[in-house]
Amino acid sequence: MIEVENLTKDYGSFQALRDVTFSVERGEILGFLGPNGAGKTTTMRIITGFIPATSGSVRVAGYDVADKSLEARKHLGYLPETVPLYMELTPTEYLDFRARITGITGSRERKARIGEVMDRLNIVDVANKQIGNLSRGYRQRVGLAQAMLHNPDVLILDEPTVGLDPVQITGVRELIRELGQDHTVILSTHILAEVSMVCDRVVIINRGRLVALDTPVHLASTATESQTVHLEVAGSPSTVLAALRTAPSVASAGLLSADGQNGTAAAAESLPAGTYNYQVEGAPGADVRSGLASAIVGSGNQLLELKVYRPSLEDIFISVISQDEQAAAEGAYDEDEWTDDGSDDGDVEDGEPDAPKTKQGAAEPKDRVVTRRRVRG
């Protein structure tokens, strides 16, 4: 449903996007991640036809957004981070206006469709109040309603849960999962737990480049070469540690304190008397679980819990971005590095870079292929 090929966007000497390529299938929810200034908003605005690309192409439902813009937009629903609402109108009036300009001309059809989306997003109770008098959460839901109004094949949602309370956030997440069954959804958010809960795949961009593209599960499984295991064991720490360290393929073993950090026996005594938490690092590529269980039981201690620790999406995101920044600092790219002027966001606002950066050269990665191995430590 969405095909992005070699997408590049320049603003004078500032290059917001560099040769970005990815695709999204029908019924897929894609998480679109990156730090502030990475180029997320620029990419979404090019996909929606709001701004043109410098080079490369974008196709939505088979239509090129540059050559067949109107046809492509018929298949798109867009919720920008800042929703352009008319504050003097009521949600009903605003959605009626939006329905008319998106081609829903029959009054009966418009009324039915407006009622459906308002009910789905729980804004019926404020249907006849001025938008300017609504809370930020309700305004966000009105914005989401206008994106869904013409039942598009593709929904592009930029921070859809901003301003919502926890109950509303849960409802929007459930709605996104439901929409993903028969729509294509691109979700951009800084709440990474949200991506883990609803997205089928994740794209991570940094400095305008694609640096990772995979499922959240596979990114987590490939984020480290070695296996990390957490154990809860009843027994003397000295005998337990001795047993753990002699188990096959164990690289290191230590006590964990109550906050999950490496600690001492005294720091770890928040558990029942005589019970402690441990962390074991296995050798690269080794599965140490059965060996650890045998070692604990064989030493006469009681194994209460054993589980493999898997990094969160936050851990993976930080690792990927850190490695990309390190690669740039070490000259892994042929282009000159950018110098940030200290502002938070380099995405485009109103047609100009929000955070201009200066280049001290020009950049193409030596290795243009982004692989899953890149997220490993």
List keywords for this structure.
377 residues; alpha+beta; six-stranded mixed beta sheet; four-stranded antiparallel beta sheet; 11 helices; 26% strand; disordered C terminus
Account of the protein in words:
- The chain has 377 residues and is an alpha+beta fold.
- 30% of the residues lie in helices and 26% in strands.
- It contains 11 helices and 18 strands.
- A 6-stranded mixed β-sheet has the order 6-7-8-3-9-10, sandwiched between helices. The chain has a 4-stranded antiparallel β-sheet with strand order 2-1-4-5.
- Strand 1 and strand 2 (14-24) form a beta hairpin.
- The protein is elongated, with a radius of gyration of 25 Å.
- The two termini are 34 Å apart.
- Residues 258-270 and 336-377 have low confidence and may be disordered.
Write a concise synopsis of the structure shown.
The chain is of the alpha+beta class. β1 (2-11) and β2 (14-24) form a beta hairpin. It contains eleven helices and 18 strands.
